[in-house]
Write a structure and sequence with these properties.
The complex is a heterodimer of chains A (670) and B (708). With 670 residues, chain A is of the alpha+beta class. Chain A is built from 20 helices and 16 strands. The longest helix of chain A has 28 residues. The chains are: A alpha+beta (670), B mainly alpha (708).
Chain lengths: 670, 708
Amino acid sequence: MTSVAASVVERIPIDRETRFARGLLATAWVAALVLGSNLFQVSSWMVGDIAYHRGVAYTMQAGSIQGEGPYPGLLSYYGGLYPLILGSVAALSGATFDTVVSVSSWAFALLWPAALWLLARRVWPDDRLAHGIFVLLGTLAAPFTHRVLIWVDSVLASAQNAFPVYPRDVAILLVVLLATAALSADRRARVAGSGIILAGIVLVHLQIGLLAGWLLVAWSIWRARREGALGPFRELGATAVLAAVLSAWWWLPRLAAVVSTKGLLLGGYPGAPELRLGPANAVMAFGVVGLLALLGLAVVAARRPLPGRLAPFLVWIAAFVPLIVVDRAVGGFDLLSERRVWLLVSIPLTVLAASVAVVIVRRLSPAWGLLAVAALIVAPSIPGNFATVRLVDGAWQSGRAGGRTFDAARWDPLFAELNRRVREDRGYVVASYDAYEAWIWSFSGAQVPSLWLPGPFKLGFEPAVLTGTGQADRVRAQTAAFQAGIAGICGLARRFSADGIVLDAEEGLVGLHDISPAAPYRVDPGDRSEATISRPLAPGISYRDLGSLDVLSLERGAAWSPGWTVPEAGHMAIEIAIPLPPPGAPATPPPATSALRVTSGGASSEVGPGLLPGFHRLTVPLHAGLAGDLTIEALQPLDLIRVTAFSPLPGVEASDGPMLMATDAWCPSS
Amino acid sequence: MVPFVVIQPTMLPLVLAGSVALAGLLVLPGFRLAARLGGPIDRGFGPLALAIASSVLLLLAIATPLLALGFFSGLAMAMVAVALALWSLPPFLHWVRRTVGRTEGRSPGRPLATAAWVAALAVPWVLVALEPGFPPADRLQWYYAEVGRQLAGAGGIPISVAEWGREVRWLPDYLVFDVISNTYAALLPGIGPAEAISAWRVPVAALSIVAVYALLRLWIGRSPAILGTALIAGGTFFVAKFNAYKPEAVGILLGLIALWLVVQGVRSGRRSWLLLAGLLYGADLSVHAIAAVATGLLGAGFGGAEWLLARRARRGLADGLVRAAVLGLALSVALGVGLQGRAIVASQALEPALVGGEDPTWAFFLASTGVFEDPLPSPPARPLAGGISFPWDGFRVTSAFGWWLLASVAVGLFLLAAFGGRRGRAAVLGLGVSGALLGLTIAFFALSFATYVPRWTGLVRFGQYVPLGVAVGVAFGLEGFLRAWTRVAERPVPRRLPLVAAIVGVAWLVPWVVPRYAAEPRIQPAGLEALARLEALAGPDDVVVSNVLTAGTIELFTGLEDPLEARQPLIEELGLLRAANDLLHEGHEFFDGPADRGFVDRLGARWVVVADDPAVLGATATLGGSTSGVAGVEWLRPAWQGPGIVIHEVVEPASGAARVDRLEPLPLAGPAALAMLAFGALLIVLARPPGRLRPPRLAIPRRRAADR
């Protein structure tokens, strides 16, 4: 299987073929740059997985090479080279993490086709046409869809080329380099190269590192069987030791943390469906790579040759497909998730597809060959890539995070100030509202006493063991503190050694009482399950964990009370969300009635008339403060997100927006 | 999973007899002519296609003078057809021997296996024909049968028929279909019209499946053709069009035959086949105009592609194609002028217009489906979305989860064009050109009209052919992948692949289609009993009205006049449309509160049938009202009562108000003779060769199919 069948007629003259191949490579690099930079996009306010990596990177800027989570002393479960390098560059350049990620993505975009080209030279040593086709296919290939399984959800390795660069993207690139090294004829390159690269993968993405290790194991077994010798196992052992040693600085502390905390807190959102590819979905997900690879597998099944050194890649496929069976059998296993396995399998599938495409192009006249590249590789990739570009374009908007809108003009300077203190003070802790703390940590690195853990934020290790206070205790302390006004807030700050306090100011008043109504009903991350994310609490009231935030869902007529008495409160802000109609339901005009009835001290007022579905912040003026009988009644089905009472803070002439106060300056030391 | 299907074993011989009668009628009478046209081609699908085309044209040729002179009857037609069939028996038996027999070293296994496979694919249509209640009852099949009955009753084109309480012209759009169906009915003496109708769909579906397979085989190998046939037969297009006694199904069958003749005519350079195809398209316009036009577009697309890629004799072929087209149109015009009362088929269907900004056709559509809201809901905004984008039930091809199919097909088509030689390129080009022509037709309806009819209906009716194109594309795409595999692997396709494809196709199709047919509405036992009682109670000229919006059911089962059982093609004339709308609204008001008997008396009705649930009579909507609502009306006397349905006799019905069909023939001898003479002259001119068509007979070399 190392050469083209002898009977294949090469219809393209060799000089034209070389020019053709160069053209394919050039096209691939241009496409890589365009797609990988998303036309030189610079994003700010990135959320999703980047939000967690950013927080860790900023804590690394405080001098912690391991990186910490949102709580002081909580070792980051991820860490590694991605946040370390990008965070260091950000610290050195003075740019934000998001800017560094954006610009790094442009450069990384060019590395991906380069890595593919190196692998292509290993698979088809003297076949430039094959190099060009493989690199182009591996860069451009996209799913046959415009909405699902694209961008970060894609199972195609070529999706790595989309903006921005994620740890997974770096790891996949390293897997390509690992395969290149492992297939080298030079034993030193095989052992040392593979060991170094495998360590790099572990330091960027442990899950892919383990799968890459399994690939080396499978290849060693295959080689040992073919050679009838144990040499490949010795090489594998040396590679493993080297990789383990080089990455020990990362995995040893985490192993220790796992041992001491007796487990990991990495569970994703329980309601999220697992990726399960059926035949039709597989064709959709793998696009033309899948079709051509199937053709290739059919050719191989007929014991007919294809150009290139394909045997290792068939072994790769054969070794990984059983992992999918295992994942399905155990009902979703994080270390072997089907999505990741398919992602890695897509590399040998692309090799196989390219091999078939090479034969097809060679069987045709030059004009038809060119047409084949356009029809089989370029044209089918356009819809998926175009959809990805559009998706990335609209993914992040300045000020949008966790389902709420921040005033970026006011928050960006505050985040910059907090980050400066993190770097200069080698760490900084602030107390703030439950609704803000996740984002304060993510955008500045300033750690917090407590927080809601939106989607990609995971604690990793049990904070009760590593920091002395568990998550549930932190949430309880946070909720209680903001029920008690400035005294409670100061108490919270003192208890968790907060250096500063971030509060909202409006119309000269400060938000001294605040609650996320769902917070008291949260469960510990380890207890989160499908049964806990949506559960009734009382007639008409239910708790709902939406992933990005949690809410109290109130049916029409249901009422909720924070239990405050704040006679000095000047006004109150209530954040709600009007639920979207179910998919496919006809759009209905907004109701003429108000959303809420607020009753306090015997007086009631209705607020929020005619609201459309989505997030709303309603302000309720209070002329006689808040009495103990404050109730908020839903006049239509809605989600209650947050309630804040604003009161005067003596000595503070606050301008509107978030304000940072030094704890020592505002809280008595006793 | 196949649901439990209730079948009536007593229907089995009827279905068998009906299948043999219709298949025989469509094949045998023209077989001798077909043998002559086929020349040395004396086995396989070629003689069958020629025979079907010849039979239909012969039946039409015989029926035309009979209709013009007022002597038309199913029995007369059947006698001539049987005589022609007997005369054609020797060449037919020769064809059977050549096709199935062990000749020239060929094993009979393959044709027999093909026949068995077609029979297996036809199982859903057999099952639905055996089910009680004549599903799908709430379709227009009863109306079509009634139109045919009126033709036979008059012995020619009827002077007028009664619809909407008025005398209107008889609907001439399905004339050739009516000729065939009356002949068919006469071949089945002693079998009731409803049973005959049920049996009809089996041979039509089976012959169409054969035609689809034969057509696919013109371009692709056996395995993809086998799978493609199953995919087409199980698609929304085929399942919907071949579920009942419909002119459109026959129109599609004849259109497919004509398409086969066009392609093979171009390939072989046989001008006679092209002319025969043209004539068949012309006759098909009087079977079902939409089916003829849609399949004609396929003929233009694929025929044009074959012509474009033909190496030699293109001038002669172009001449033949043009003559065929002219001949087909001329036949349609001659039939229209001579018998049908208009030169262009279904031309009135394009006439509706807004009246004062209101769309009377939309109002009619709503009222005729039981919607009497005020204000009326708006017409659909995106009429293309539903029926067109689902090639198979539940699979939407224009969604994030469905685009993969079109993309995969596109890749397959490229591979077919690249590796399929000229035949492969002709397939791809033909599909593309046909799709473009169909798209232009759809755009025409979308852009040219403002009313629901014909804008929405025309657009959707043509759009319903798009899933056929998708399924053909899938078959072609499979061939492309198979050819790519054979070229890359340098291996022939495994010999057992067609067998696997056949098993997979049947295993997919039968459980897929049977549940869809099992869910079709049917007439419930109480409804059948009510219809029988009504027939027994009523006199021949009685008029009946019902709150159930049936479509010809009452008229066909009882022979009585029901003014509300009329259909859409007749609503182009604004006055009739208004009258129909008014009548439907009057009916709605009457059944909602039947105090005033004006509605009943104006129609001269003697019988009022009221059902609580329209499903009792196999329908889906009513004008309103219920059995309890009419229970106490003093001028209505209950004559029979069943579960959920009551027959009332009107006390002292109004006399002289009833409108019934005038089943006497229109005197058409003059215009028909002139039209046919003109057509005959044109036929002689066009059939004469312009010079010798250049050989070779095969304009395109024999294909190198991947898995012949």
